[in-house]
Amino acid sequence: MHIKSPKKLIEVALPLDDINVASAREKSIRHGHPSTLHLWWARRPLAAARAVLFAQLVNDPGYQRELGYGVNKQEAELKREKLFDIIRDLVKWENTNNEEVLNRARDAIWESWRETCHLNRNHPQAADLFNPEKLPAFHDPSPAVALSRSKPKGWGWRVTPRTSTPWR
User: Fold this and answer.
1) Entry pTM
2) Cα distance between residue 40 and residue 52, in whole Å
3) What is the pLDDT of residue 96?
4) Residue 13: pLDDT band with limits 50, 70, 90
């Protein structure tokens, strides 16, 4: 039996203009930003990283559920816009530690996880793989990257750093 995986928000749409504006603004921040501590190669804006990570973790509201019955397009757009509002708030530097914003993101991630668990409730390994009360582990492919270790943990994820790189 195959695993049912709804489309993720990142596969359908993103508020790119808002992410780009926040990423550009982040480059001018000179107080309290990690980029002021040390210059490193291939720096990426944290705003873009937060947006992409969140969009990979939440289901798109417009996908077809179970037997082909999904939400109508207007309802899907409204729900998608609510997820976009969360992204718009997540990408703002001043909201980095804003618990209200982080809780909204956590709630959306949990809702998506529980929806995925429900879709796979008849899977032979559902008890092991799809526990609606426990998020799966987040495997960090690069333990040196602090962002991927800290943000998912802050969103309720159990983080497991990988110590070997598959391309070596």
Assistant:
1) 0.77
2) 21
3) 86
4) very high
Query: pLDDT tens digit string along 115-168?
Result: 999 999 999 999 999 999 999 887 666 554 544 444 555 556 565 655 554 444
Alpha-carbon distance of 123 to 126, in angstroms, equals: 5
Question: Between the CA atoms of 127, 132, 133 and 134, what dihedral angle is there, to the nearest 10 degrees?
Answer: 70
3-state secondary structure the chain: CCCCCCCEHHHHCCCHHHHHHHHHHHCCCCCCCHHHCCCCCCCCCHHHHHHHHHHHHCECCCCCECCCECCCHHHHHHHHHHHHHHHHHHCCHHHCCCHHHHHHHHHHHHHHHHHHHHHCCCCCCHHHHCCCCCCCEEEECCCCCHHHHHHHHHCCCEEEECCCCCCC
Paired residues of 140 in beta bridges: 161
